[in-house]
Design goal:
Layout (H helix, E strand, L loop, with lengths): L10 H7 L27 E4 L6 E4 L11 E2 L14 E7 L9 H9 E10 L16 H20 L5 E4 L2 H12 L3 E5 L4 H16 L3 E5 L21 H11 L14 E2 L32 H17 L17 H5 L5 H10 L10 H26 L4 H12 L1 H9 L1
Parallel strand pairs: 3-8, 4-5, 4-7, 5-6, 5-9, 7-8
Antiparallel strand pairs: 1-2
Helix pairs in contact: 1-10, 4-5, 6-10, 10-11
């Protein structure tokens, strides 16, 4: 097995892989907190009234990485933290694109200067507890290509991407101190290891009196637009799918910025090689299958080819598939090189299928959303209890959802 995180399997399994960026297993509107509460975490959250100038405080219970305030991604006027003029650090994670990027939109609206950053975390290039490579050579190569393409895209609009190797909670704090930055902006993730890094970063930032703003991204349905609170979402996909299809709202993707605030003067850093990451030389090319290249431009190229072939096959049983019977876009989705909302918009705008909500691609995107939200729903329990065992977390999740009792009852 070259890569335990490799791009294998059919359309469904590929979309599932794309829900977990490094593990396998969002101007402010009138509201900034979630619809409902996640159990076990209290945080004071500022809520903005629709009446101008009125703010209130509530003690909504949120997942730990939402502190101090969680905002949605539609509309970015001047918020309670202050207007334009902030020096910001934009931390790129599994969101390696310019289009439909809420954190970049925040930077564009609020920043006077920005330090765009990507860190290659050494913890993601080691071994799992089972002895497999956490990130194999093919996947690492794809990541390096995606980061390189993001840097080029940022330079095209007069900005840059600072690249470092190291733990984000250490690299980010040091860069903030060295450059007088008082706020870090990033997108939240839902898996345990990523949330654990967020917690460590937040503690380090708070110790240095540096603010942080976590926004939501990378799902078809925004967390604020679900017809239920995350902690009360259905545990069964079909129920989730029917509810979001009937009552959910899909936002229009944000346009890519044409210009960002000036880039803070800082050494850009060198793009690492596979050897730098401890993965040896370029991986072998034995297969005749098409080689995937990481990056936003290649992601949009893949989407274009998929749409073209799907339209050519219009009227056949496979009209909703195309591109060799799969859209094959999950590798780019996994690193955020393309937005689910952008995929949905393009399919709808180009009339690929008569009714987008009945297409296989739509349902696969909803399936992907389900797994991200269900991971968010139950993943917080692992952080809350300090459980490091995935099996222990699964048992807790089954117990809390009532599924374990149902299985025991059925067995008897």
């Amino acid at each position: 097995m070259e890569d335990s995180r490799g791009f294998r399997g059919g359309l469904r399994s590929a979309f599932l892989i794309s829900t977990l960026p490094f593990q396998r297993a969002s101007g402010l509107k009138s509201r900034v907190s979630w619809k409902g509460k996640l159990p076990g975490f209290s945080s004071s959250v500022v809520s903005l009234s629709k009446k101008k100038g009125v703010t209130t405080k509530s003690n909504a219970k949120l997942a730990p990485s939402l502190s101090p305030a969680f905002t949605d991604s539609n509309g970015f006027g001047k918020g309670p933290a202050g207007g334009k003029g902030e020096k910001l650090l934009m931390w790129f994670r599994a969101d390696l694109r310019l289009h439909d990027h809420p954190a970049l939109k925040y930077v564009e609206q609020h920043g006077s200067a920005v330090l765009p950053l990507f860190t290659f975390d050494p913890r993601q290039f080691g071994k799992t507890s089972f002895g497999f490579a956490k990130t194999g050579r093919y996947r690492a190569e794809f990541l390096i290509e995606a980061v390189d393409q993001l840097r080029k895209r940022l330079r095209d609009i007069g900005s840059d991407l600072i690249i470092r190797e190291g733990k984000p909670e250490e690299v980010i704090v040091n860069l903030c101190k060295q450059n007088g930055i008082r706020k870090v902006v990033y997108h939240r993730e839902v898996c345990f290891e990523e949330q654990e890094v967020e917690q460590k970063l937040q503690k380090a930032l708070e110790k240095g009196r540096i603010e942080h703003k976590a926004l939501w991204s990378n799902t078809l349905y925004d967390v604020e637009d679900l017809p239920f609170a995350v902690e009360k979402m259905p545990d069964v996909y079909s129920k989730f799918r029917d509810m979001v299809k009937d009552k959910g709202q899909i936002r229009e993707p944000l346009p890519a910025p044409k210009k960002l605030p000036r880039t803070i003067d800082c050494e850009s850093g060198r793009l690492p090689t596979l050897s730098d990451l401890g993965l040896g030389s370029e991986p072998p090319r034995k297969l005749k299958a098409e080689r995937f290249t990481g990056g936003e431009i290649d992601a949009m190229g893949r989407l274009e080819r998929y749409i073209a072939e799907a339209k050519r096959n219009s009227g056949t049983a496979s009209s909703h598939l195309g591109a060799d019977f799969s859209c094959k876009i999950s590798p780019w989705l996994a690193l955020g090189c393309v937005s689910p909302r952008r995929i949905h918009q393009e399919l709808k705008k180009r009339n690929v299928v008569p009714e987008i909500s009945k297409s296989t691609t739509y349902f696969e995107l909803v399936w992907r959303d389900f797994f991200r939200f269900i991971t968010l729903k139950y993943g917080a329990s692992r952080l809350r209890t300090g459980t490091t065992s995935a099996a222990g977390t699964r048992a807790q999740a089954l117990t809390s959802s009532g599924i374990k009792e149902q299985m025991m009852s059925a067995a008897h």
